[in-house]
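Worked problem 6 (solution included).
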Amino acid sequence: MLHRAFKTDNFYKDWPTFNIPSTTPARADGGMIYVQWIAKKVAQHYRLNDITFVVSRNPLLASAAQVWVHSGNVIYVEFRELDLSFQTQIWAIMAHEIAHIFLDRLNLRFANKLENEILTDTTSIYLGFGSFFLNASWDEITAVSSNQTKTTKHRIGYISEVEAGYILSRRDKLLGENSSKDVISSAGRDAYEHGARIFLNEQNSRPFIKRSFIDRLIHRFDKKASEVPELILLDCIVCSQPIRIPALYKTLLVKCPNCCTRVRCFS
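Solution. The predicted structure is:
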C-alpha cells in the first residue's frame, strides 16, 4: 500500500533511518514538554510539519497510548503511564501513534481494526523506526522465591518482535545497514536475529540463487525447454508483490511493478 502511494524508485533512501537528535530540551513539567518535543521530531520525520501536539496522561486507557484529532493540525496524545526512564518506549509509541496520522492523510487503511494496527506497526518500521520498536521489547525477571524467578515479557505494538526483526532485516538488506548494532535490548536483538535468519533462508532459495550445474546442463541440451520457457513466480523482497519471470537460465535484473525495487535473480 505504501509503495503504491509513493511510486518511488528509492523508497528507503527517501525515508532514512531515524536517529534521536543530539540536542534535547529540559525535561520540565513532569516531562510533558519533553514528550511533546519527541512527538514533534517524530512527526517531522514523517514530514508532518504542521502539527501541534498536546500530551496528557489518562490512566483509564486500555492501550499504552492513543491519539485523536481535535482539529486538522492539533493532535492530542494520551499516555496510560509516562515514565521518562523508558525513553525508547516513548519514541516507539510515538512512532506508532503518529504513523496513524501519516496513513490517515494518505487515505491508507484497512476496515479491520487489527489489520489496520498491523499496517501501522509495519509502516513505522519501514519508515525508519525499527530499532525503536525492538528496543521497546524486554524481559523483566523478578524473584518469586529464593530458588524461583518469574519472567514478564514487555512489548508494544500488534506484530511480534520476530516479525519486526524480519521487516527490519529486509530494510537493512536494501540500505546496506546493520540495525542490530542499534538494538540494545537482548530480547529485541534475539528477535532481530531470528527474523533475519528467516529472511536469509528465503534469499537462499530459487530464484535468488543460481541453478545447479546439472540443471543448466540438462537445459542446454533440451530443445523443448528452450523453445517454451517455464514461468517462475517470486515475491518482491520489499513489498511481497508476486512477480512472474521467464525461466531463461540467465541472470536477470527484475523491476517490481509495485514498489519499483530492482531485484537481481537467476532465472
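Discussion: The chain has a mean pLDDT of 80.
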